[in-house]
Amino acid sequence: QVQLVESGGGLVQPGGSLRLSCAASGITFSTYHMDWYRQAPGKERELVARTTINGRTTYADSVQGRFTISRDNAKKTVYLQMNGLKPEDTAVYYCRAQRFTLTNDYWGQGTQVTVSS
Predict the structure, then answer these.
(1) Rg of the chain, C-alpha, whole Å
(2) Which residues of 90-103 are buried (b: 16+ CB within 10 A; e: fewer)?
(3) 44-97, pLDDT tens digit by residue?
(4) b/e map of 5-33 (b: 16 or more CB within 10 Å)?
(5) Exposed (0-12), middle (13-18) or buried (19+): which is 76, by Cβ within 10 Å?
(6) What distance in Å separates the CA atoms of residue 89 and residue 12, rounded to the nearest whole number?
(7) CB neighbour list of residue 15: distance below 8 Å, 6 or more residues apart
(8) Residue 14 has pLDDT above 90, yes or no
């Protein structure tokens, strides 16, 4: 059974930092591209950051320079370090695993991030 379990969300003041984690089980982690998405109330889910099986990373323009995605294949975990948080970063953050062959696709349940003073 495949599971993606996110953690690390919470309430933080503007300018603060959070580190999200997504622990995977039931998959060969090193063969999956790993993404972080987010969905704010009333908005569509959007891709925040991706790390490929080769370790290449891409970011949404809105988070470039503030967020960093990384992966630890030995721990089967992907991280999202979020610095300089803004109120507009408030959303539910989801972890997604996509096999490099594009044949399998799994999502976590999400973790709430709220940026507010």
Answers:
(1) 13
(2) bbbbbbbbbeeeee
(3) 999 999 999 999 999 999 999 999 999 999 999 999 999 999 999 999 999 999
(4) ebebbeebeeeeebebbbbbeebebeebb
(5) buried
(6) 11
(7) 84, 85
(8) yes
